[in-house]
Structure formats: structure tokens, C-alpha cells
Amino acid sequence: MEVQAAATRPSREDTFMTSLLRRVAVVLAIAVCLPLGGAAFASPGNGIGSPGIGDPYYPDYGNGGYDVAHYAIHVGYTPATDQLTGDTTITAHATQRLARFDLDLMLTASEVTVNGAPARFRQRPHELVVRPRHVLAAGQKMVVRVRYAGVPSTVADGDIRPWIKTADGALAINEPEIAAWWYPADDHPRDKATFDVHVRVADGLEALSNGNLVSSRVRDGQRTWHWRETSPMATYLAFFDVGQFDITRTRSHGIPVITAVASNGGQEGTYAAADLARTPEIVDFESSLWGPYPFKQMGGIAPAADFGFALENQTRPNYSRKFWRNGPNVYVAVHELAHQWYGDSVSVHSWKDIWLNEGFATFTEWMWSQRHGEGSAASLFRATWDQHPADDTFWRQRIGNPGAGEEFDDPVYDRGAMTLQALRTRVGNRTFLRIMRSWAREHRYANGRISQFVALAERVSGKRLDRFFRVWLFTAHRPAPTVANGFPPHFGTSRYPTPISLAKIMDVQRVAQQTERR
């Protein structure tokens, strides 16, 4: 998931209640929508796909009634006007009888076809509601083509405005909402798919995206960049960056490595380029911990923009240049690349499971610190404990179910990493690594719930751990420093030196007050 460099935009907390009330009103309104009829979360028997996939935090995110296999996205983008035109084809299959289904799209659709036949459609906030000419049978293949256009920076879903403009282009990166601002989607991590992304821009600009660069061709002064990601990917992880970049191509163990830094990145760009050049080294280290790297490409991008966070875009994370404002900062790359295992390959089943992403990536920073002599994971555990006394609000959040709009608060990261270090102490390092590697292997390219991780940890360790995880993940108080809770013996009297990595890691983790995916 993303980590924040600094607070520059309104927080989700500031706008959440207004947005939620509006969303709930919209969802309820569907039930009495006369033109197309049907209830908001319709049963499979009535031929209406639900407008949400069933996430408990965001009921209208994703959709029901079909499963996407592939997105073929064609967009043209003009930086001067921020105008985007799109033509996207979605290959899917119906999971129920479908007389109507939804797609998530914020731009204005002009034409929709289903299996080659024109379809009726209408739009409401966040949703493109489609009625195919012919009812789809359960199991039937469906090829949906949507043509659309708009100015993404002017489009808002309530207070949600995820589009990022830069001096010479734009960034289609954010979490959890960004897909609907540039392509129609079943926009939830549960419905992963493969992607072909074609971005057409003026010749002289670069357009970067996920996976392998298939081609870059010029016609009539326009260059089309074609990127392909063949491993299943969650919709929010798909991205494109347009601008002027210095691109470096290398290989590591046969895997192509593409890193890019904005051509006008200044001193921050120099630091970023040096840290991103360490991507293969970081991936090798993380592979030694968590198992084989799950994808066929790797890299990273540092645009010339202070958007304030980093995001784990599959195969190629994006980083705000603010991370390098004070010099080198390899920890942010360690964090985002750890998400290639935990977040990208293994994605959350619901957004409440976010600890499986953020706690895991933060703990990987701790292990990097330990490997490089900047403080052991045990000393970082202790330093985090000492930093937050028992009456600190840090302990009030139940990180196993943090609440809508609070998924990216400090405790999810730092108490999350503490949970894994406590588990490591409780079961032993060898068993702990078996648990982590098994999680990455058994849920590769799929999704996972916290309850499944708990069951796996108990199976691999042979220990009852339900109380342990309840204390760390689902209680609103500071865990008692006991051996049963994963504290080392004599924790109350032992002391560790403050890790020199602590300030660096805390800089990466500054997410407590505001999230910047809006």
C-alpha cells in the first residue's frame, strides 16, 4: 500500500462522513430506480448484477455478477488541457444470469457494446449501469467495450479527487480509488485481471505503466506506448505516468528492470535515481525472506511531483520526490517493493484486511534495518513500544479492523510490524519465516483474509494463537508485555539502543494524521 511523505491534501477522515452519507444515499436510491429497476444488492436470480462487490467498508466498490479476465485499455492524453479519451475493452464471464450490470467509471461514456451489440447505459456517481441487448447466461463470455472521455482533474466523487497533475503531464496513481478516473473497471482487489495498457501522447513525452514495454510507436506526431502485465493485478495497481523521464533499463537474474526519474527532478531526482538503482538488491534481499519474486518485471518511478505518498504499483512502484528531500531514502523502496509480495501478489480480500499489506511491508523495513546494522527488528519493536506509552491514542485502534477511512493510519503500519515481530518471538524465527513464505506461496496472485493468516500461523507453528492475534489486532489497548503475547523474557528490564534507522523508517511511515490517496 501507499506510504505518505507529508500532508498536503485534505484527509479522508475530514471528508469521510459526508462522502459516506452521500454514497449510502446513492446505494439506497438504486432500489427505487425505475428506468432499470432492481435492488441495490440483487440476488443472482433476478438478472441484476450488484453495484458493489460486498466490501464491508465501501459497499459500492467493485461490482457483482461477472468476473474480469483482461482489460485492453487505450487512452489518449493531452497534458495542456488534461483531456483524456478512452476506448477500453473488458473480457469477462458472467457468474450469474445478467440482464444488467455495473462498471465503475467516473468519466463520461459515449458508447457501450456487449459482445458486439450496442447496449443501453446510464451513469450515476461512480457507476456505469449497462443493460446488454441480449441477456447473458451464467458462465457466458462477455466482451464489453466502452468509449469515454473527460478531464480527470475536474471529476470528483463527492470529495474524492485522486487524479494528480504535474508540470508536464499527469499521474494516474492512488489508492483505493483511481481506476474509475481513467478506465471502466470492476474496481476491487478481489477481481484481478491481466492488462494491456496503450497510452497515446505527443511525441517527446514518455508514458509509463505496469509490466513489459511491448512497443513505442510514432504516428502523426503522436507516440503510443504499449505496456502489458500478464500476472493477475488488482485494478488500483494499474497506472500510467505521463511526462518527461530519464529511463534506465537493466536486468537482474534475467528479469527486466525499468526505473525512471523525472528529467526535471533536481537534487531529489539524483537521490531517487541512486536508490531506485538498488531495486534488484532490495528484491534479492526480500526474496531471501519471503520467497521468489512473484513478477516478471521490476523497477520504480520517481515523478517530479510532490504528491506526498508512495504506491506499490505492480512491478513498478511510484514515489513522491518528497521522500528524497533530505537525502537518500532507501527505506521507502524497501517498503513498496515488499508489497510486491504482500499487497500485489497476495491482495486483501476486503479493505479491512489492510494489516496484511502495511504491517508486512513495514516489518520488511525492520528486517532491512537489521541486515544493514542500523537496528535489529527487536530493537525497533522496543523503540516503537517506548515511543507510545499505555495512554497513547496509538493503542486505541484495532488494526485488524481499523475502520473505513482509517486503513492507512500509523498503528496499522507500526503496531502491525510489532505484531509480526511478536509472532516471530513467540514461534521462533525459522517457523515465522515458514509462515510468511507459505502465505506468499499459497495465496500467490489471489487474495487473503486476516482469519486465513491466523489459521495458517496456527497450522505451521502447531500453536494456539487466537488469543495472541486478538490481543495484537483486535483490542484497543497496549498489549501486556508477556511471553504469551510475544515479548522476550525480562522485556521490562531489558534495554536496546535506539536504532539509527528509526527516524528514517518513521519518515516513511508518516501516515497518522492524513492519507494522501485523495
Explain this structure to me?
InterPro entries: Aminopeptidase_N-like_N, Aminopeptidase_N-like_N_sf, Peptidase_M1, Peptidase_M1_aminopeptidases, Peptidase_M1_dom, Peptidase_M4/M1_CTD_sf. It comes from Nocardioides mangrovicus. This is Aminopeptidase N. There is one protein chain. The protein is α+β, with helices and mostly antiparallel strands. The chain has 2 domains: 31-202 and 227-235, Immunoglobulin-like; 244-518, Neutral Protease Domain 2 (Neutral Protease, domain 2, Orthogonal Bundle). The chain is built from 11 helices and 23 strands. The strands form 6 sheets. An 8-stranded mixed beta sheet has the order 6-5-9-3-2-12-15-14, with no helix packed on it. A 4-stranded antiparallel beta sheet has the order 10-11-16-13, with no helix packed on it. It is globular. It starts with a strand and ends in a 10-residue tail after the last helix.
Oligomer: single chain
Q: What is the percentage of strand-forming residues? A: 25-35%
What would the average pLDDT be, to the nearest integer? 90
Q: Helicity level, as a percent range? A: 25-40%
* Low-confidence runs: 6-42, 511-518
Structural class: alpha+beta
Strand order of the largest sheet: 6-5-9-3-2-12-15-14
Q: What is the CATH T-level topology of the largest domain?
A: Neutral Protease, domain 2
Ends apart, CA distance between termini? 14 Å
Going by CATH, the architecture of the largest domain would be: Orthogonal Bundle
Globally, the shape reads globular
In this structure, how is the largest beta sheet organized? 8 strands, mixed
Q: How many discrete domains?
A: 2
Beta strand count:
23
Report the C-alpha radius of gyration, rounded: 23 Å
Domain Aminopeptidase N-like N-terminal: 70-237
EC number: 3.4.11.2
Domain Peptidase M1 membrane alanine aminopeptidase: 330-472
Protein name: Aminopeptidase N
